[in-house]
Amino acid sequence: MEIFVTSKSFAKNNPGAETTLAANGFSIRRSSCLNPSTEQISKEIGNADVLLVGNDVVNSSVFDNAPNLKLVVMHGTGLDGIDIKAASMHGIMVANAPGANRNAVAEMAVGLMLTVGRRIDKFEGILKSGKWERSAGHEVSGSTVGILGLGNIGKRVVELLSGFEVKIVAFDPFEKSSWVQEHNVLLCKNEDDVFKTADFLVLTVPLTKDTEKIVNSRTLALMKPNAYVINIARGGLIDESALCAAIDDKKIAGAALDTFAEEPLPVDSPLRKLDIVLTPHIAATSIETSAKVSAAVAEIIVDIMNNKKINLAVNSETLQKR
Question: Do residues 208 and 123 share a domain?
């Protein structure tokens, strides 16, 4: 069976992932492009049985040109680039590697909190320019951290903050376990309460119809003037024009963003003109995470294709009903 790979990270830091696949009867063919477009994937996919993608857009145009395709696997967690409904209609399974990047992304969230609170990035630039300027910033310790989403990453953020003596408030309609009490998390009844109380608002929810632009003019108006927005999840969670207005009008103190509605971030994006922290979607980009994810997706491909563990596919229930 052939695997067509568009992910530039696959096996880069873990050659053993390719060895695992070869030992289980898979051959690997990589895309000729580092960041292939949907059209390029459609042209190159050929008779592949499995498609292993990174942050690519995969939809019906790909599936229509892939007669042998049985499985699409994301080299990571986020599935918003894959049209799962279209995949199901074509009888194609979709899978990802949830949890493998939790530590890297959670560490990035904490790092961005420290950076934006003390403006480490800004003062580094000032110092390197030959100047010596200083001003006071905000500590994370003693603050209230609001978290929207207590999945793998949200919970890891809570764990990493345990030494900072912070108060943590969170909203997650699906969290019913005793974990919140064990970690001293105040679970709010709605997201508005998180917006109202947070000094640092951390977004760790997936992008869905319910969470799209959850940070908007209304919810930003609920926030404290000294509060910061931290986004290490998906850019579509934020109404970027509303965020720009809130920061320009000093309704909130600032933001640290690792993801954006459009990526790469356009050169003329208003976000670039703000005095905020911006990073190019690198939260999950660590050597350790890359190795873990490569190993995980290799095992997933073997388990689904060879061992028939169809339940590992995120759309398994939909396919079983067809």
Answer: yes
The total number of structural domains that make up the chain: 2
Q: Would you name the residues annotated as active-site residues?
A: 234, 263, 281
Q: Where are the beta strands (DSSP E) in 6-143?
A: 27-30, 50-53, 71-74, 93-95
- CA angle 282–288–292, rounded 5-degree value: 105
pLDDT in tens, 275-303: 999 999 999 989 999 999 999 999 999 99
The sheet that has 228-231: what strands, in order across it?
185-187, 167-171, 144-148, 200-203, 228-231, 254-257, 277-278
pLDDT in the model for residue 40: 97
Q: Is 245 exposed, middle or buried, given 0-12, 13-18 or 19+ CB atoms closer than 10 A?
A: middle
**Dihedral sign from CA coordinates of 295, 298, 303, 304:** positive
What are the DSSP E strand ranges found in the chain? 2-5, 27-30, 50-53, 71-74, 93-95, 144-148, 167-171, 185-187, 200-203, 228-231, 254-257, 277-278
What CATH number is attached to the domain comprising 313? 3.40.50.720
pLDDT at 322: 65
Residues 215, 142, single domain; the answer is yes
Q: Would you call 168 helix, strand, or coil by DSSP?
A: strand
Q: Indicate the Cα dihedral angle 250, 253, 259, 262, nearest 10°.
A: 10
Q: Residue 102, exposed/middle/buried by CB under 10 A (0-12, 13-18, 19+)?
A: buried
Domain range enclosing 45: 2-98+287-321
